[in-house]
Amino acid sequence: MSEDKSQQDERLLELRDRIDSIDSDIARLISERANCALEVAEVKKSNGEDVLFYRPEREAQVLRRAMQRNPGPLTNEEMARLFREIMSACLALEDPLKVAYLGPEGTFTQQAALKHFGHSAVSKPLAAIDEVFREVEAGAVNYGVVPVENSTEGVVNHTLDNFMTSNLKICGEVELRIHQHLMISDVTRKDSITRIYSHAQSLAQCRKWLDSYYPNVERVAVASNAEAARRVKGEWNAAAIAGDMAAELYGLKILNEKIEDRPDNSTRFLIIGTQAVPPSGDDKTSLMVSMRNAPGALHDLLVPFQEHGIDLTRVETRPAQSGNWTYVFFIDFVGHRDSENVAAALREVGACASDMKVLGSYPRGVL
Ligand SMILES: C=C(O[C@@H]1C=C(C(=O)O)C=C[C@H]1O)C(=O)O
Hints:
Mean pLDDT: 94
Main location: cytoplasm
Structural class: alpha/beta
Oligomer: single chain
Domain Chorismate mutase: 6-98
Keywords: Amino-acid biosynthesis, Aromatic amino acid biosynthesis, Cytoplasm, Isomerase, Lyase, Multifunctional enzyme, Phenylalanine biosynthesis
Radius of gyration: 24 Å
Shape: globular
GO molecular function, one term: prephenate dehydratase activity
Strand content: 25-35%
Order of helices and strands: HHHEHEHEEHEEEHHEHEHEEEHEEHE
Largest sheet: 6 strands, mixed
Distance between the termini: 48 Å
Bound molecules: the ligand C=C(O[C@@H]1C=C(C(=O)O)C=C[C@H]1O)C(=O)O
């Protein structure tokens, strides 16, 4: 028995020695990589006035490669997540990115910002989508992160409407699986819950669950999930629906996990900025088009995409701000505006539209 134990101890020591030596190799290689990134920064600076340190297309390629060559046993997503953080730290040496997101802290949008830029970016929570647009336009931050559509609840109109008056470009997208939890504070009496706070979108995503388990409890829509969590902190008869980050931030206890009605519930976020992003090899383009309200207008608009073999991923309609029953279409499709078939389709759409704006070509979300 004790013979076994000492054999086991020996084996553990051996393995830990090996891990220590691998760790020192990893540390050396990460430092070597960071020094390369610093040299890249020098080259970029010597190239011109308007230096773009952050290169979304290059980052997407690095992440995709990390997934493709992953030998296991880690999953591709875990491997890419590790590289995401290494790149984030390397980029921060060149120029720490400032990123604004729809806050407050603890929202899913913050989670999306961290997922996209890693933890070395400096992030700033703002109270409204308009403010995120404004802050990026003013140059106070480099990029903004805003939600644009949820797989259960549909489009975030506010984000689309901002593009009608803004000149910002879409530089990237992030998709996040959204898990909603019911949470309470230390003072909440589980059997006396009379009120559940959450953002309207989250209440809608959990509607059936609430109908079954809390049919008579008042559902109170507040400005964000994080705000819902904050309120619950001091209320003995209330609960909140929010995500992991909000529970952690406000020290709440999760009573029921993953209560969203649809297991594949996910939200897509956009990265907004001022930069036109070159092709990464797997890109999407977003387009805003106004059409006269004539018969067959939408059909005319869609024909060029079909003729050039372009895959549409989303079509949304919003009333134009000029009013009088004119419409603006938001169209997302696969491909980069620099590729020949996309450029040809855009020329043809431009010819039949009363107005057209390419909101951006950007790498398809990797993680
Ligand atoms: C190093 C570069 O700059 C940044 C850092 C990157 C990295 O660490 O791999 C990749 C792209 C840029 O955001 C580069 O452009 O290659």
